[in-house]
Design a protein that fits this description.
The protein has helices spanning 5-16, 21-24, 30-46, 54-57, 61-64, 69-76, 81-88, 98-104, 110-123, 126-139, 146-156, 161-168, 173-185, 191-200, 204-217, 225-232, 237-249, 265-277, 282-292, 302-308. By secondary structure, the protein is mainly α. It has a domain at 1-123. The longest helix has 17 residues, at 30-46. The radius of gyration is 27 Å and the shape is elongated.
Length: 309
Amino acid sequence: MLKDIEGGRAAAAQLAAGAPLHSVLDVADPADWLALDAAVREATWHHPQLLPRWEHAALLAADLTQLDESRLALALCHRDGRVRQQALHQLVRAPRLLPLVVIRCADWVGAVREHARLLLRETLTVDSALDLAPLVLRLGRRDRGAFGIDVLGHVLRQASSGQLAVLFAAPDRVVRRFAYRLVVEGRLLGPVELARAAARDQDTVVQDLCATAVLAALTDDHATEEVLLPLLSARNPRVRSAGVTALRRTGLSKQAEPFLSDRSALVRACARYVVRQQGGDPAVWYRKRCAAADDAALPPGAVIGLAEC
């Protein structure tokens, strides 16, 4: 991985010498592409000795047709917008440089930016969009980065839940959030899969998104242990509270009583609402538990739950 600008400079020098792209950077890592882009611009401005003579000749469009993939990658990152724009015309013979097209979609030069955007619209497929999603979403935080996200969303809305599954396991939570929003929007996952995702993912945004989607999709036909158990046993209080709400919606309100003493105030409040809706009195339940148990056996939220009543 090219961890910083120094690593990017070294990579630029190796590519200029003709080293294969895959031997210089991790082509699956967005950070490597961004580091290379930044390093080439910095190198051509301040460290021209890092690049061979082709850097000067590449200012002429005709010379770009003679460049191999490694040197064409450098041309796509060049400080001169005319070189970057002409390099985009050569992408038909170097499809593996599509990540640099994504970067050029946020280029500060309008002509380069528009050409790159046209290329991205024409070439992006579901498979390539899945590979490029981390880079596109990372660039989306920059000025002029929204275009890439729009194109990515348009293409991936054509994907199946099975194809999007590769993004569910992405280490970048922004990627996971994006993928789950797509499946929720397209109703590509059922309540069982959504409940498992809500309980499994470590990101609170994904947890809330999937738990809310479960409640929206829940019917009596889905009132199974496969849906309820992941929600009710989740570590996140918001997910557990969604599970308690699901008990009422599926006619299982009686099962909400144990959650009256949950450690979470949110879950306790939700459980009290469900119990009251089925005619129960949470205060009576709390008093009985507090009176019958010694300190060691007292449920963790019983006393505070009684106070909350």
